[in-house]
Write a structure and sequence with these properties.
The complex is a heterodimer of chains A (433) and B (987). By secondary structure, chain A is an alpha/beta fold. Chain A has helices spanning 2-18, 130-133, 166-169, 204-223, 231-234, 237-241, 253-265, 283-288, 311-321, 341-349, 355-360, 364-370, 417-432, and strands spanning 32-35, 38-40, 46-47, 50-55, 58-64, 75-78, 83-86, 88-93, 140-145, 152-160, 170-180, 185-187, 198-200, 245-250, 271-275, 292-295, 326-328, 387-390, 402-407, 410-411. The radius of gyration of chain A is 23 Å and the shape is globular. Chain A starts with a helix and ends with a helix. Chain B has 987 residues and is an alpha/beta fold. In chain B, the strands form 8 sheets. Chain B has a 9-stranded antiparallel sheet, with no helix packed on it. In chain B, strands 28, 29, 30, 31, 32, 42, 43 and 44 form an 8-stranded mixed sheet that branches. In chain B, strands 1, 2, 3, 4, 5, 17 and 18 form a 7-stranded mixed sheet that branches. In chain B, helix 5 (209-227) crosses helix 6 (236-243) and helix 19 (729-752) packs across helix 20 (760-769). The chains are: A alpha/beta (433), B alpha/beta (987).
Chain lengths: 433, 987
């Protein structure tokens, strides 16, 4: 019996080898120019008939070909009738941390412990994940990889999605710490005979105090001689010196308000609200404190029967219209659904948001919120050449069809485990006939 | 010590009282009391409608001898003059657990569920317990008897509140005196049932509402079969069930929806249940009326929510707020519709809350006579004991209340509750009622005194001018002691008054000053007329109850009046016909009488509502082949086959997801059973007619479907369960072979005319074998897909649909050969091991091979944008837009064998259409109107109006709740019901 197990394991290994991940593209050697495409810059503007020159992994120039002229570099990619976009950025994902949701052995997203900022997603990121590879054909080229669970879940990192290993993948290592703000409501412990539904969380103040105590203790520790090393406290350093952001996962008005006061009063430099189901009700507070929101993805249902059926669809627009900096996050959805990110943004267009504004929700706004906007998020000169060409409008399912994708000017494979199976079986039936 | 003697004396009294005719007497002479007791000058409610204004009630030996205005009182009568007082028959509660202790919950028991029964010689299911008899567990509880008597009850029908069939109840008179020989009126006074399992067994079946209903049906079939002597084995449960057959059958349904469900079970077997309702019957009163049942109504009207915390209050749902506002109207709604009902105190925390809640129902318009009937004559009638209980007609049991006035008035005191001729004093009726307003003068200062509360335990306030003084009063044995503070609040000074109550209405006596000096006082009572007038003014104010209108469904986005079928002419639309004509530009479509009647250009129709659809797209409604919305339960996981259960019995037409799906252009769905078992339950195919009753959602002519499932879920791979067959895909095959082999044998026997035991599960499986029922099978990997087709072929039937079918692309040629259709996800994968090779190109490959392919949701969120999921098939695999659109309309209609009615825009088909503001496959487009059979169930403009109305109504209710709290009424903390989104694996 045991032998069988080994044979099975070997077989599995063989399978894995057969369906191995696409080989990461090598560094850009020669320059190239994309000509004729409609360029969606990502900052709200569009250039029809664009010329985009890429050299050494950077966008050298992006301009309107019908107005300006410049020497084209290297290979010319004719993209007449096509569209160019900056690579889409997923946030609050578990990419590379979870392969199959139901298989515990493939799940590395939630470590034991309540206040564990020292736990880092970076080093567990599986660059060869089949789920990661499936992001690229839809235009998602960058993702924040975030641990979950507990009160302080750990530290996230921002990865580009075509790499040999986590070290090469890191676009920004350890970008921020994730705090699950205490919930204003708790669920009835039905197994003890309490009603199942939600009721106000009687431990809310206690839980907020626990967070405050941890932050205060960390600060005190960091001010001291650190004679005896405390890993969790040590990991909080970046929040106080501004190198890291605090991502506060919270949805309700009370929690958002309390969290903003908490951050202000405790010397934490940058915060971002993640979730923000009710953020549209406190836009003045968010603006006056310069707090950005990574709003829940739009493909979710309203929390109450009474709420507008389209509230999740329009939530990003409500925030943007009020002047809040907003991006869309994937949290709460199954990992693989991160590839639907462009359509989460497209959904907002249906609610009256301008298409280019909607694009910002997954490009420039997100880059600003994550603090990577100097390198990515738009098709402006000087930025990383992390971009793709789509046959049509990339925010609409029907027309999101990629022909090329680049990370730092490297031409990516758009093949995946899934496209291989597609071709293999399509062929089977063709030859069968 | 004294206490001990008291108990002893009481016990001895008890013993002497139970002396009966045929008992020997060893402690004295055998004597018999043949005296009468006559209550004279009373207002007597012989029945709620037969009232004697000033009459006599004559009782003897625990029975009413006579009632009337002119009764000759025998010489050997003890006469009690109760002038000014009223006499009512005492109350009866049909749904009680008095004196019958509930068994303890069976705890622990390892990590795997228990699938088999734990008893021998009884029914195969531990939760069927008709052999239980309340009387065997009955132990008179004098404490709760006293509480019940205080609330006015004289008789209760008690039972063991445990199990789906709970066995016989016992009718008990609530008398401490007389012992069980007098108390037990009937030891087989009815059989009780419910939909909840026994706590004494961990047997997992039934694990759902559908399962409970199916179990009841199979049990009745088995009982008949057993009664005919067909069983070779002993079954004490079925024997008891058959023995209890002629008793009244009382079933705890507990909600309006369940009322209707259990009534249907009863109808099938010729049983008219008496139904314990949920108090929400008013929401669809016509459906309740149609059951013809008598209802036992709970009176646990909800308290207002404490809405002071605005954050917490923001999670309150309109439907819960309305429930608070509307529920007290329930008894009136039943009364107005001529539905028989009785009241129970069982759902109240204490029987003492009965009166306040009945008064609330009366304030909502319930007729007082009806209220009284619901506690007296109506329950007596249900019990078939109208001659002896519930009234004071000659020969009835002497169970009655003596009150100070009308029983459901706030000020009324119940003095005595007589049970079987035994007197129980609640309040001493000889105590003079001193309540009222007085004024008196002490040391030159005038004070006003108000005495309220109960007549024996009054409360008092003394005022000097407008100043309220600290006041205490005690009233005992005709002596009143009153203490109040002096007007100078800087000092701690008390005036003390003492008075012996006399025949005069005024109080007089001694006053003791703070300095110890004494004097006399006279407190003069103001005339009753004044205070009554005030009272009635006050009552008048309280009676103006502002009840919110009921909507269908009775919550957010419900309709006050159901929308009507219309004749509508769409002008100048882009029409996606799904027929030969393809997509027609600038085309008019006329719908009339619920059908599509014309398609063309420049159409005109008199009386039609014209909709300008320029720039818009008109399509047939979206059909979701695999949905789990609109159901109260999805999985019956208690057995590996649950072919006997039906989702149609568990529909929830109030699910907000129906409305949200309409807003996404969905018009029809198949609600499939979950994937807990290889053989699941029967499907319900419905139209999303928001606001209609469950019955009206169902397709009248839908073909029969059943859910099957394969793979990880049925093997129970992803949770801790190791004891149920099958645990492997190998076992799954054998399970099917076994069931179909047995179903074949069953069907053969049935067709041969031999006697057979009717088995709902086998009947269902035989329908599959006979081509009368179709399978939609949850499936993932190619091996199992192939396997089920081979099993089907072996038994000469065809699998109709593989749903999910994520590796369908690997065996598409075999599927095509078998003739099975596919209903798949657009792009789901990576959530389980078995979906490792799931690819978004699946639909396109299957489609290209020639399989009828649909895109489904299995999810209440995704289903509201299935148009986008179809669009993904254009992206993944380059299927044409028209063909992709069919995957959520015509193709699922074909898979459901409903394409003769729905799925395309064709003359003669149902007018189930959607008007989109743009291309239906675009992520940017919205449904503006969703129409089913000519009725507009979703309209984007009406939706906006409804949003505003919800906001307005909620703030009005919020204000009403705050007023309630300010009045000092009790409130309840905020809570929000759990309404999980259901999926295949929801248990």
């Amino acid at each position: 019996m045991k032998n069988f197990k080994y044979i099975y394991a070997l077989l599995m290994l063989c399978c894995t080898i057969t369906f191995a991940q696409q080989t990461p593209a090598s560094a850009q050697k020669d320059g190239f120019t994309i000509v004729g495409a409609t360029a969606h810059i990502g900052n709200g503007t569009v250039i029809e008939n664009s010329v985009i020159i890429v050299e050494n992994g950077k966008i050298v120039s992006c301009f309107d070909g019908s107005v300006a002229k410049m020497d084209l570099k290297g290979k010319i990619i004719d993209a007449q009738g096509k569209h160019v976009y900056p690579g889409f950025i997923g946030t609050n994902t578990n990419l590379g941390l979870v392969e199959v949701d139901a298989v515990r052995a493939t799940n590395d997203r939630d470590e034991l412990g309540d206040m564990i900022p020292h736990i880092r997603s970076l080093i567990a990121y599986n660059a060869e994940s089949k789920v990661v590879e499936s992001m690229r054909p839809n235009g998602i080229l960058i993702a924040q990889v975030t641990p979950n669970g507990g009160r302080i879940s750990g530290t996230s990192s921002i990865m580009q999605l075509d790499a040999w290993n986590w070290e090469d993948a890191a676009l920004k290592a350890d970008d921020g710490i994730h705090l699950n703000w205490p919930n204003s409501f708790s669920r009835g412990r039905w197994w003890l005979g309490e009603p199942r539904g939600l009721k106000p969380n009687s431990n809310y103040s206690k839980q907020v105090e626990e967070v405050r105590a941890f932050v205060t203790e960390s600060k005190a520790y960091l001010n001291g001689d650190k004679a005896s090393v405390n890993l969790p406290y040590e990991a909080m350093q970046g929040l106080f010196n501004g190198e890291q952001k605090l991502y506060v996962h919270v949805n309700d008005v009370k929690g958002i308000t309390d969290a903003i006061h908490f951050v202000k009063n405790n010397g934490i430099k940058h915060m971002v609200i993640v979730g923000g189901y009710q953020a549209h009700l406190v836009t003045d507070l968010l603006k006056s404190n310069n707090v950005a929101v990574l709003i829940n993805h739009t493909h979710s249902v309203p929390a109450l029967d009474d709420h507008d059926y389209d509230l999740p669809y329009k939530a990003p627009k409500l925030l943007a219209d009020a002047g809040v900096l907003v991006g869309i996050q994937n949290g709460g959805m199954s990992n693989f659904q991160t590839r639907n990110l462009p359509f989460y943004a497209g959904q907002v267009v249906g609610q009256g948001m301008d298409k280019e504004e909607a694009l910002k929700l997954i490009t420039s706004n997100t880059a600003k919120i994550l603090g990577i906007n100097k390198r990515v998020g738009t098709l402006e000169s000087g930025k990383d050449a992390t971009l793709f060409i789509s046959e049509g409008d990339a925010l609409d399912m029907r027309t999101n069809k990629l022909t090329h994708a680049f990370i730092n000017g490297r031409a990516l494979s758009l093949e995946t485990h899934q496209t291989k199976l597609w071709k293999r079986y399509s062929n089977k039936y063709k030859t069968g006939k | 010590m004294i206490k001990k003697y008291l108990i002893l004396t009481m016990l001895m009294c008890g013993f002497s009282l139970i002396a009966q005719e045929h008992f020997p007497k060893n402690d004295g002479v055998k004597s018999k009391n043949t005296n009468y007791t006559a209550f004279t000058n009373a207002k007597i409610y012989v029945t709620p409608t037969q009232i004697i204004d000033k009459g006599t009630l004559l009782i003897k030996n625990g029975k009413v001898v006579a009632t009337g205005a002119s009764i000759t009182i025998p010489a050997n009568a003890v006469i009690v003059d109760v002038s000014g007082k009223s006499i009512y028959p005492s109350f009866i509660d049909l749904y009680s657990d008095f004196g019958v202790e509930k068994p303890k919950r069976q705890g622990g028991g390892g990590r795997s569920p228990q699938y088999d029964a734990s008893r021998e010689g009884f029914y195969w299911n531990d939760h069927v317990r008709p052999e239980q008899n309340a009387i065997d567990n009955f132990k008179f509880n004098s404490k709760s008897a006293s509480e019940l008597r205080k609330a006015g009850f004289g008789v209760v029908n008690t039972h063991l509140q445990d199990g789906i069939v709970r066995g016989t109840g016992a009718l008990i008179a609530l008398t401490n005196a007389g012992g069980d020989s007098e108390r037990i009126l009937d030891q087989r006074s009815g059989q009780y049932l419910s939909l909840s399992k026994s706590v004494t067994s961990r047997q997992s079946y039934p694990g759902s509402l559908m399962g409970s209903l199916a179990l009841l049906r199979q049990m009745y079939l088995d009982a008949d079969w057993y009664a005919e002597g067909n069983s070779s084995a002993k079954d004490r449960s079925l024997e008891a069930l058959n023995a209890n057959k002629n008793l009244i059958q009382i079933i705890a349904a507990g909600s309006r929806a369940n009322d209707i469900r259990v009534d249907k079970v009863g109808d099938q077997f010729g049983i008219q249940y008496v139904i314990l309702g949920g108090g929400d019957e008013y929401e669809r009163i016509n459906d309740i009326k149609a059951t013809n049942a008598t209802y036992i109504l709970p009176l646990n009207f909800p308290k207002a929510y404490d809405v002071e915390d605005t954050f917490a209050a923001s999670v309150l749902e309109l439907e819960d707020m309305r429930e608070w506002n509307q529920k007290p109207s329930n008894p009136k709604a039943l009364a107005d519709n001529g539905i028989n009902f009785v009241f129970t105190s069982s759902s109240l925390k204490s029987p003492s809350m009965l009166k306040a809640n009945i008064m609330k129902a009366i304030a909502y318009g319930l007729d007082k006579t009806k209220a009284l009937e619901a506690l007296t004559t109506a329950p007596a009638k249900v019990l078939g004991k109208s001659n002896t209980l519930g009234s004071l007609i000659n020969g009835a049991q002497a169970n009655f209340l003596i009150t100070s006035g009308e029983i459901f008035e706030k000020e009324t005191t119940v003095y005595e509750n007589w049970v079987k001729g035994h007197k129980n004093v609640l309040e001493d009726m000889n105590v003079k009622d001193i309540r009222g307003d007085y004024s008196f003068t002490v040391a030159g200062d005038t004070y006003n005194l108000n005495i309220s509360g109960t007549s024996s335990k009054p409360k008092a306030t003394v005022k000097s001018g407008n100043k309220k003084l600290g006041t205490k009063v005690s009233y005992k044995d005709a002596w009143v002691n009153l203490t109040f503070t002096s007007t100078d609040t800087t000092k701690q000074e008390f005036f003390r008054l003492v008075s012996r109550v006399s025949n005069s209405d005024n109080l007089d006596g001694k006053v003791i000053f703070p300095n110890g000096n004494e004097s006399t006082f006279l407190a003069t009572k103001s005339s009753k007329a004044d205070s009554k007038k005030k009272k009635s003014e006050k009552n008048g104010k309280e009676k103006s109850i502002n009840m919110m209108p009921i909507t269908y469904p009775n919550g957010a986005y419900g309709f006050k009046e159901l929308p009507k079928q219309e004749t509508i002419l769409f002008k100048n639309a882009t029409v996606w016909t799904n027929e030969k004509d393809g997509v027609l530009k600038n085309t008019d479509v006329l719908i009339k009488a619920g059908k599509i009647t014309k398609i063309g250009t420049n159409l005109n129709a008199r009386g039609a509502k014209v909709v300008d659809a320029t720039g818009k797209h008109l399509t047939s409604g979206i059909i979701d082949e695999h949905s789990h919305i609109a159901a109260a339960s999805i999985n019956e996981g208690g057995q590996n086959s649950s072919a006997e259960v039906s989702i149609a019995e568990a529909l929830n037409p109030e699910d907000i997801d129906i409305y949200r799906n309409l807003a996404g252009g969905v018009t029809s769905i198949q609600i499939l059973h979950g994937s807990a078992n290889p053989i699941g339950g029967r499907s319900a195919i419905i139209k999303l007619k928001w606001g209609e009753s469950a019955e009206n959602l169902l397709y009248s002519d839908a073909p029969k479907f059943i859910k099957f499932a394969l793979g990880e879920n049925v093997k129970q791979s992803n949770w801790e369960s190791y004891g149920r067959f099958p645990q492997t895909r190998m076992g799954v095959e054998q399970l099917f072979v076994d069931y179909f082999t047995r179903a074949k044998a069953y069907d053969d026997k049935k067709k041969s005319g031999l006697t057979y035991r009717k088995d709902i599960e086998m009947e269902t499986l035989a329908e599959i074998l006979n081509g009368e029922r179709f399978i939609s099978c949850h499936s993932y990997v190619q091996s199992e897909i192939n396997m089920l087709m081979k099993v089907a072929e072996r038994f000469n039937f065809r699998v109709n649909t593989f749903t999910h079918i994520l590796e369908g692309y690997k065996v598409a040629d075999k599927m095509k050969a078998h003739g099975v259709g596919a209903s798949t996800f657009s792009d789901w994968w990576a959530y389980k091991y078995e979906v490792n090779d799931a690819i978004p190109y699946n639909a396109s490959i299957m489609h290209n091979v020639g399989i009828v392919t649909a895109i489904n949701s299995d999810d209440g969120e995704m289903s509201r944008r299935l148009n986008q999921e179809a669009a993904k098939i254009v992206k993944y695999g380059d299927v044409s837009e028209e063909e992709a659109w069919k995957m959520v309309t015509l193709n699922p209609a074909k898979l459901l064998h409903l394409d003769h009615r729905v799925g395309s825009i064709k003359i003669g088909k149902d007018a189930d259409v959607v008007l989109w503001n743009g291309h239906p496959l675009s992520v940017y487009s919205k449904a503006e109107k969703t129409i089913i059979e000519g009725v507009t169930y979703f309209d984007i403009d009406r939706d906006k109006t409804m949003r505003a109305a919800i906001k307005k109504e909620k703030s009005e209710l919020m204000t009403m709740m705050m007023k309630d709290k300010n009045k000092g009424m009790k409130t309840q903390p905020i809570k929000k019901k759990d309404k999980p989104q259901l999926h295949c694996d929801s248990l």
